[in-house]
Design a protein that fits this description.
With 163 residues, this protein is mainly alpha-helical. 69% of the residues lie in helices and 0% in strands. Helix 2 packs across helix 3. The model has no long low-confidence stretch (mean pLDDT 77).
Amino acid sequence: MRDEHIISLLENAPLRSLTENDLATIRVHTESCSGCLQSFQAAQVSQSLLTERAAVEFAPSPFFHTRVMATLRERQAANDSWALGRLWRSAGALASSMVATVATLAILTFVIPESPVATSQVSSLPNGYSAEEVLLEQTPQSEEVSDGQLLTTIYGGDEETSR
């Protein structure tokens, strides 16, 4: 028994959960081993300190609840006033890019004039039909458009045959 120390018994379980047989083994061993006696006494002291500390009941100050609730209300009021600021910080880049895109499209649509090449091409067609009129059937219903007229209107057959 002198070669076996009781440190493993003390480390594996709390003192109050030890059986009478384990306590008897500890007492017998500590009579002859001073190192294990010191470990057993330290375990007893720590057990009593923990028991005493757990028995002490902590009571907060009388106005603790009031102070905590007042601080919580102040923080909520501060957060509510900056809700728009937080929203702008999170979505500001997206909103800015959308405004820039709309402004660019408005400039391209209203400020920059229509190119004169597009209008001159429509008036120079040989049969007087435009591609939109032919494709969207904006011609009077009594006139039938042949496939040749359609292809000539779309591809400009007179200019290519002369080349």
